[in-house]
Amino acid sequence: MLFLVGSVVYFVYEGELATPNWVLLATAVLLLWFSFAMPTYCDFSTVRGTPCRNRVNGKLRGCHQHGRDKRDAVWRALFRVRNPGEFFRVRWHSSAVAAPQSVAGAARAVTRSTTQGTRDATIFVCTILSTVAGVVGTVASVLGLWK
């Protein structure tokens, strides 16, 4: 479907855009599709160390269980800071209530490495850069600045 749409757009605007613009636009669209629309698996590292096999759309998206963890890992890998969205999350506890005691056999806390976040952050940065380059190249070509 993506190829069909790209072919139609190419033949409609064939003479208006220079070849480098088509390359930049194709790269931007492909990376956007890869990052946010491609049917794939979550692949977030589970407690057992295996990748999550839940279906998602896009490599940067996580499943219903790992979406938040994946976004947090990208923030840690890109900027070395906590996700700013954490400040707006609703916390369903009260400071007046004591923390629950640990239960024997309960799941232990897991610390996430930034390796997966680094990979996802790299995909995100490449997507943003190629999208900006594609848009700038297209605007420059349409305005006649680049032929």
UniProtKB/TrEMBL annotation:
Keywords assigned: Membrane, Transmembrane, Transmembrane helix
Membrane as a keyword of this entry, yes or no, is: yes
Q: Which domain of life is it from?
A: Bacteria
By what name is this protein known?
Uncharacterized protein
Q: Which chain regions cross the lipid bilayer?
A: 20-38, 121-146
